[in-house]
Amino acid sequence: MIGKSRKPKNIKFHNQRLVLSLMRQNDVISASEIAQRINLSITTVVKILAVLQENGLIKSMGKGSSTDEGGKKPELFAINESYKHVIAIYAGPDFIQAAVTDLNCRLISCRNHPYKAAESLEQSMQDIVDCARLVLEENGLQPDDICAIPVSFDGIVDTENGIIYYPIHNSGWGRNIPVQEMLERLIPWNDHITVNNGSRYVSYGLFLAHPEYRDRSVLSIMSAASTGGCLIDHGKLVQGAHGFMGEVGHVIIQPAYRKRRCLCGRYGCFETLVSMEAVREYAEELSGEYGDHPLYRQILEGGAKHRDVFAQADQGDGFARAIVDRLVEAFESLIHNAALLCDPDLVAIGGAFTEGGAYFMEALKARISNQSFFEIGNRLSIVYTPLSANHWIQDINVGAALYAVDEYLRTLEFV
To answer: Which is it for strands 107-114 and 95-101: parallel, antiparallel or unpaired?
Structure first.
């Protein structure tokens, strides 16, 4: 293996990957800056840029305003965002959404497409293919223009084997479905079809706003109408042996909880303890202590969301803070267990909890810091993500596009 890695061809491809990776982190960059930042000779970098430009993957952006060695203005280069495109597809419980992005993962267009027969697996797979064809034609693209088609589903997805073990919302599809094989058969014009859980893809999209997270071990917790997440270890999605890794919504936090059964069939899952249904239950339990509070009526009538409770908690309202304390308790238990199981150094909280506000975050960090035996709070960063519940499906597709582009460029080779 060592001898193979030292072959000139492998070194060349490795250097190409380094140059591409750096270029994707910068809108424009010069050859000399690339050489300095990745410790390659300027001659090597110039040759790599020439190959990439000849193949159309990068483009010249003209001369820079600052002077380079010898007083010459440096030529600037950028990724050619139109080199290839991605069709990212979210196959949800009620409809399909297909999004077209460029190579920089900028959203070009998106379309919602209904299922013709949502309970039929075969028809639903054909609907996904039809949706892909529609956005291809609507954007004037040809099959060769598409570098990858990532498809995301809800439920337990084993991406390594392309199987949905349990489509949690689309129960009519059955179990143990070889969706990747089915889609590859129906879409013979693309060789880069991947399937995954939507929570993993949306979490991977964090790197667009925070590329520095690629150097960390990140546990994401995305909670809205449902809850998911994933572990990303130094830029790599940790899938697990069977696709269970990251199903944080189904970690059992309170085994004795019996008010509502989770969709997975168990009681006391994290998802059931932080949903709006849980907020309603907490409000009912606390109403005797706080009286006929306006927020209580708003919650019972369905007019309040998580953000409304968070906002009043930030303003010092005792009733709202008592509800938030219950949510914090569930998050603390989950994070404590996760720290002992996968030991991340950063927890990113998103979905409806992106708007958790100051009180929620301060209370959560205080509770984590009080776990003195393990001193988890002294080593763990907890942050909000920019990923909210407002553009959840779109964010899934953009995250899927980023993952697909990363994988495509990682394996792309130029002579």
So the answer is: antiparallel
